[in-house]
Design a protein that fits this description.
Oligomer: heterodimer
Largest sheet of chain A: 5 strands, parallel
Number of strands of chain A: 9
Number of helices of chain A: 19
Order of helices and strands of chain A: HHEHHEHEHHHHHHHEEHHHHEEHEEHH
Order of helices and strands of chain B: HHHHHHHHHHHHHHHHHEHEHH
Strand order of the largest sheet of chain A: 2-1-3-6-8
Structural class of chain A: alpha/beta
Distance between the termini of chain A: 86 Å
Strand content of chain B: under 5%
Radius of gyration of chain B: 24 Å
Shape of chain A: globular
Radius of gyration of chain A: 24 Å
Mean pLDDT of chain A: 87
Strand content of chain A: 5-15%
Chain lengths: 353, 504
């Protein structure tokens, strides 16, 4: 046999057919994911939550407080409690830990104005979340299907992530979800586990309902990031970029700690690294005397979700701590107003849970 | 947030986070494979074929050493020792058959001793002395496979089936990366002549395109289907391992998902291996032929891991006496073969139980060859195979028992409210619950999600022909349906799961 490769016409056709099959697959996939398939129940819930919170943010004229985090925001913080203490309109803007910080910040930036305050009690996982994980979060599919304007403002790797966010499971369950929504389906659990109020807080996680999860909570060993991971985390770099933007645009940023179990709190070095991220960027950092730690019985189902009773207690303590921080770098008139507020509430309230 | 569940799986493969080089990994597809093919065909075009084979051998050793380079020495030592033994056997066979048999016995003992030391020392020690401290011997990758390949070569030399071949051809045959890690278990007489052919390194576009087509289909089976079902199976089996009482639906869904996972994972791997060999102008035998479509357990074994079946039949069952002996002895041979088959898969009692179950199934099938309608026979076979997968997948016998109890309904039958509300009569037998905690992601929609995936998976395995019997046009349609999902899983899925058969 000759030692040269032999390529017949049919061989060439076989390769072309294979290439055409691959290309057709890609085209079909993109069209289906971008135009047809949707997960209105799984992702629609997140999208509607975020849109409702943004709508409240857009409706507020004048200075406001916005809390941005993962689910720790709405489940462990309550703007309904904070707002009357600070006399400052408040929006609980966090949705879920999986939502990319770049996407969250991109949605909120147009609604933030000079004089606004953003409080960031981010979960540890948000600081250390990798670029790849961020690229593939639930917001990827949401952007591709419903929010391409924001997607175009993000980096090209986010475009790729959004384009390829749909796996087989998503593709199979999407028609099921679309059919269920068309048939008027309602999630049985949503009625049991409460809902979201006008401020964007989660309500209804009562201690009585939380009893069902106490055994799981008692056995849970929370994961903690180490200090180096916080310092080098991709999420940390996104937070730093946001702070830099906020400072240029006259928006005040205050860092904070997420809620966690008192008996399994993050290591001191991790906490110091989080604190340092904010202080190094030139913004304030709020740390309650209890470092946002609570007994396990105070939680609903995870360390990021206090039950409703403790959500309010934590929010009241936080509101007083925020008032102090905001007074320090506010204009004189605002400082006087806040000092009056603190006097009226009694300083012993600050730092108490 | 809890630790990622998949981390221990990677740790299991070496106590290091660097996994073996997998056919479905980015380094293999984007780096190793193009370089290997280019070097092989360039050397085949511009140099002697021996240089192309040297390149292929070097690539194969690099592929093997990617995970733990020190084990390349073990593989190389085993190849050299077996090559020398084969020479002895061949020379002895020419003038003294008893001497050849002694050399063959020594060679087989050498290979089995190596396998026993690395794979079974701890298991045997624990069986003999339960209190003794474990030896913690590290299992070299693919040792079960390259041991069998080399025993076949030694036996072939003793019987005259294998003719003399050069060390380069033999070493390339054993280390040939498409089959090195997890088979198919190929016969030396089929492969060595192909590697020795002068035309082996001449690029053939028909082989390249056919091989690539098979590789892409195998990639989709592994990444898109196998890993999807693996997530569902892991949820159920991990919960059972932790002592959770799985309800009827949760237990069955986990078992059915595992049946699909292991099929798509291993048959996908085999398709990729066959495709890779084809790209390199080497034909491998078929390893799977729609096994879940079998109508009895004997037929299942003619369709499942076909090359292992050949090996066990030719090198274990027949030498033990096979079917040409008394019924009692035949039963013993069959059960012993299947028990050893189970033990070959892993040094644990749960694998022995799996092999034993299949042995019993085969004995029952021979003793009472009942004729059932096609669908009933297929369902009965499937039921038996699925039940046997439970100990195969479970961490231990306790977990297997817990799963089987769940499948028997001893923990009750629960279904999501959403289903019971939609079809009220189901409420007569099933308790409505908001979510099934050990099904999928334990969300309200996990039940329809897992159900839809299982329906698709079982439709493919029960109603579609195997890849090898698909017309080329249908294979192209399969690529059209799956290629984008493969790409998605390869580059955008957060985890890469090793092939299940890498463990064996």
């Amino acid at each position: 046999m000759s030692r040269r490769s032999c390529i017949s016409g049919s061989d060439r056709h076989a390769l072309w057919r294979l290439a055409a099959a691959c290309l057709a697959s890609l085209l079909l996939y993109v069209v289906l994911c971008a135009e047809v398939l949707d997960r209105p129940l799984t992702l629609g819930f997140l999208r509607h939550e975020l849109d409702a919170k943004l709508a409240r943010g857009a409706a507020l004229h004048g200075p406001k407080l916005v809390i941005l985090a993962g689910s720790n925001g709405p489940y462990s913080h309550r703007c309904e409690t904070i707002e009357p203490i600070l006399h400052l309109p408040c929006v609980n803007g966090g949705v879920a830990v999986g939502i990319g910080l770049d996407y969250l910040f991109a949605r909120w930036r147009p609604l933030l104005h000079p004089g606004d305050t953003v409080y960031l009690p981010m979960e540890e996982a948000q600081y250390v979340r990798s670029r790849t994980a961020t690229m593939l979060g639930p917001d990827a599919a949401i952007m591709l299907r419903h929010d391409r304007a924001t997607l175009l403002h993000l980096t090209p790797d986010r475009w790729a992530g959004a384009l390829f966010a749909t796996g087989l499971r998503d593709a199979l369950v999407a028609p099921v979800e679309m059919a269920l929504v068309a048939a008027g389906f309602r999630d049985a659990r949503s009625a049991l586990e409460g809902g979201t109020n006008a401020w964007g807080d989660h309500t209804g996680h009562t201690a009585a309902l939380g009893m069902a999860s106490q055994a799981v909570l008692a056995a849970e060993t929370p994961w903690h990031a180490d200090a180096a991971a916080i310092r080098d985390g991709y999420g940390s770099s996104l937070v730093a970029q946001f702070i830099a933007w906020a400072r240029v645009h006259g928006v005040r940023v205050i860092g904070g700690l997420p809620t966690e179990f008192a008996d399994a709190a993050m290591p001191d070095a991790t906490r110091a690294a989080i604190r340092q991220l904010y202080l190094a960027a030139g913004v304030r950092f709020v740390e309650l005397p209890n470092r946002s730690t609570y007994p396990r019985a105070a939680f609903f189902d995870t360390p990021d979700h206090l039950n409703q009773h403790w959500q309010m207690i934590h929010s009241a303590a936080l509101a007083h701590a925020l008032a102090t921080q905001m007074a320090r770098d506010a204009n004189p008139e605002e400082t006087v107003a806040v000092k009056k507020l603190l006097r009226s509430k009694g300083t012993d309230a600050v730092g108490r849970y | 947030m809890l630790l990622p569940a998949r981390l221990p799986l990677l740790m299991e493969f070496g106590g290091t986070l660097r996994p073996a080089m997998l056919f479905h990994s980015q380094p293999f597809i984007l780096g190793f494979l193009p370089l290997c093919l280019a070097g092989f065909f360039l050397l085949g075009r511009f140099a002697e074929p021996a240089w192309a084979l040297r390149w292929l051998l070097a690539c194969s050793l690099f592929f093997y050493g990617w995970w733990k380079p020190e084990f390349v020495l073990l593989l190389a030592g085993s190849i050299l020792a077996n090559y020398a033994l084969a020479g002895r056997i061949r020379r002895a066979a020419a003038h003294s058959p008893p001497a050849a048999r002694r050399w063959l016995a020594a060679g087989i003992a050498f290979n089995l001793a190596l396998l026993a030391w690395f794979k079974y020392a701890d298991f045997l020690l624990h069986a003999a002395l339960p209190q003794a401290p474990a030896l913690h011997i590290f299992l070299p990758l693919a040792i079960s496979f390259f041991t069998f390949q080399q025993i076949m070569f030694l036996a072939g030399n003793a019987s005259g089936e294998c003719t003399e071949c050069g060390l380069l051809h033999y070493a390339t045959f054993v280390a040939f990366f498409p089959h090195l890690i997890a088979g198919p278990i190929v016969r030396p007489r089929d492969i060595i002549p192909q590697l020795a052919a002068r035309s082996v390194a001449i690029p053939r576009v028909d082989n390249l395109s056919a091989g690539l087509l098979l590789f892409l289909i195998g990639l989709a089976k592994k990444l898109v289907l196998g890993d999807t079902f693996g997530c569902f199976a892991d949820t159920g089996f991990n919960a059972a391992a932790l002592g959770a009482p799985l309800s009827f639906v949760e237990a069955w869904y986990a078992a059915l998902a595992y049946g699909l996972q292991i099929y798509f994972d291993f048959s996908g791997y085999s398709d990729m291996a066959i495709g890779l060999a084809r790209m390199l102008n080497v034909d491998f035998p078929v390893n799977f032929a729609s096994p879940y479509q079998a109508r009895n357990i004997a037929e299942f074994w003619r369709r499942w891991h076909i090359t292992l079946g050949w090996f066990l039949r030719d090198y274990l069952y027949i030498p033990l006496g096979g079917s040409r002996c008394s019924p009692a002895r035949r039963t013993l041979n069959l059960v012993a073969t299947m028990l050893l088959c189970g033990l070959w898969h892993g040094a644990a009692w749960s694998f022995v139980l799996w092999g034993g179950l299949h042995g019993v199934y085969l004995v029952l099938h021979r003793a009472w060859p009942v004729r059932l309608p096609y669908a009933a026979a297929q369902m009965l076979t499937l039921l038996a195979v699925t039940i046997a997968w439970v100990p195969f997948r479970a961490d231990g016998l306790h977990t297997a028992w817990s799963m089987l109890r769940g499948m028997a309904g001893s923990n009750g039958i629960a279904l999501p409210q959403l289903i019971v509300q939609a079809v009220p009569p189901i409420g007569w037998i099933a308790t409505p619950v908001p979510v099934l905690p050990f099904l999928g992601d334990a969300r309200t929609l996990s039940f329809p999600e897992v159900s839809a995936c299982l329906l698709l998976g079982w439709f493919i395995v029960l109603a579609m022909p195997s890849v090898q019997t698909l017309p080329v046009k249908a294979r192209h349609w399969a690529v059209t349906a799956s290629f984008a999902f493969s790409l998605q899983a390869l580059f955008f899925a957060p985890h890469v799961t090793p092939f299940l058969y890498f463990r064996f």
